[in-house]
Structure formats: C-alpha cells, structure tokens
Amino acid sequence: MTRRLLFIAAVALLVSSCVAPDTRHRIVVSIPEQRLALLDNGALIATYPVSTSKFAIGDAPGSRGTPLGELEIAKKIGDGATLGTVFKNRRPTGEILVPDAPGRDPIVSRILWLRGLEAQNANAYGRYIYIHGTAEERNIGKRASYGCIRMRSRDVMQLYDIVGYGAKVTILDAPLSAAVPMAPGPGATSAVSSQ
C-alpha cells in the first residue's frame, strides 16, 4: 500500500507541475463528521480527520465560517517545507513547531488555498480559506478553526503531494456517505489517519 501511495503521489506531483488542472482527484469534506475523503477517479483512496469552523457554516465576510459547496484548489503553498514549518501571510517564517506546541495556533506545513465556484462560496478565496496544517493537532476532529479546514501536518503534507491545482473540493453539511462511495478503491488507505 505504501508503494502505491508513493507512486500516486509521484504521479500527482508530475501532473500538478503541468498547466492542466487536476481532474483526477476530488476532495470531499463532511462538516458534521469532521472528515475529509480523497478520491482518485471517483474511487475512495483515503480519509482523514479534520477541523472546520467553530463559529459558523457559511461564506459571509467576517463570519469566520467554513463555506459549503463546490470549490477548487487555486494555489499550493509550501513545496519542500519541513513538517511544522510556520507560515505567516503564506510565507515561511523560519520557525518550526512540533504538534500541540503550547500557546500557539499558526498555519503550518502546507497550504491548499481554495477558490469558490458558486455564489454561496464566492468569497472563499478573498477570505483566505485554506486546507492547511495546524499546530493544534489535539483539536483535530472537533470544530476549532476560524473558517479553514485544518489537518494534522503529516496528513496535509500527504494530501498536498497527491492533489494538484484545480482539483475539486466539495464541502458538505452532510455525512461523507452522501457524496462518496465508501468502499475503498484498490490500494486505498481509507484509515490513513483514523481517529
């Protein structure tokens, strides 16, 4: 399974370096379940625990909500950064944090910047809504963010290496089973970071 995942990551990296959008991969996020599913040509290949907004569901400016609907990966930030690299204004600061570092809540490791594709999430890009690593890994699986979708550093790094620009992201106020075939595809790692 590890070889297959590395192969998929290598192919995704090659594909993402091209101009063509990633039409092979799709991400689905369930707010009620606080889970993210990764699909490859419609087949489930991995699921991860996440953390969405502790404030609201929605896309109004200033709401700190996690937007619903269809989005896409507009930018990828963090190529080659070390696990735990702190980002401020989408730039590495030079600081490295271990998971659950006390008193800190920065964006770490990788950033997948989302662009909304519908009226209900049209503000997502301008609101800086990301899928990103968090130093507060103890809160993964709970609603704890300020609108973004937080992941454990090792999980977001793996996801980042697989998906490319233009990959579709669907955020649901429903269980994953509403949009994802729950039987894992061949070589899947559906329990990548189960918790």
What would a concise description of this structure say?
By secondary structure, the chain is mostly beta strands.
Main features:
mainly beta, 2 helices, 195 residues, 13% helix, L,D-transpeptidase catalytic domain-like
How does this structure look, described?
The protein has one domain (2-189): L,D-transpeptidase catalytic domain-like. By secondary structure, the chain is mainly beta. The mean pLDDT is 89. The protein has helices spanning 2-16, 153-162, and strands at residues 25-30, 35-40, 43-49, 56-57, 65-66, 69-77, 85-88, 91-96, 107-116, 130-134, 149-151, 168-172, 184-189. It is built from 2 helices and 13 strands. The chain is globular and about 40 Å long.
Chain-wise SSE layout:
Layout (H helix, E strand, L loop, with lengths): L1 H15 L8 E6 L4 E6 L2 E7 L6 E2 L7 E2 L2 E9 L7 E4 L2 E6 L10 E10 L13 E5 L14 E3 L1 H10 L5 E5 L11 E6 L6
Parallel strand pairs: 1-12, 3-13, 4-5, 10-11
Antiparallel strand pairs: 1-2, 2-3, 6-9, 6-12, 7-8, 7-9, 9-10
